[in-house]
Design goal:
144 residues; mainly alpha; 66% helix
């Protein structure tokens, strides 16, 4: 930040002694976590889309039977309904394993590092960018 730039709101002020490089490192860590959040969202989307497809099979089986194609309805029931999407797993289990094995650990470590290095304050870089770019006195550019 420049000397003439008003500081960010108190919740986003850089603690005493936190360097530019530390703020940059915390920003990179935060960005990585945000990307993992997006990946997690994609897994939930995969889970829900696969579940919707699976539920739609009930209609397909019913309609195949109604159309006189019982053998094919049986095939869908036997070969697709209840099938694992990867060996031993349905999509909810993939989501659970991602959360337990990767996401929860990532989130906890990011929080721990942010707590240690910046008193737990988040988005310091972004808050400083906001402070540097806002127009003093403009109602839509307030610090809070």
């Amino acid at each position: 930040m420049n000397a003439g730039t008003p500081p960010p709101d108190p919740r986003h002020r850089r603690p005493e002694g936190v360097t530019d490089t530390t703020v940059e490192a915390l920003g990179a860590l935060s960005k990585a976590l945000e990307t993992a959040e997006r990946a997690r969202g994609a897994l939930y989307e995969f889970h829900q889309l696969t579940g919707s497809a699976h539920l739609a099979l009930d209609d397909a089986v019913r309609l195949l039977r109604a159309a006189g194609h019982g053998r094919r309805a049986d095939q869908v029931e036997r070969e697709i309904l209840g099938r694992n999407v990867i060996p031993g797993h349905w999509t909810f289990q993939i989501v659970e394993e991602y959360n337990a094995t990767y996401y929860d650990v990532f989130r906890a470590i990011e929080r721990e590092i942010r707590q240690e290095l910046a008193e737990g304050r988040d988005h310091l870089h972004e808050a400083e960018m906001k402070a540097a770019r806002r127009t003093q006195g403009h109602p839509d550019h307030t610090a809070d």
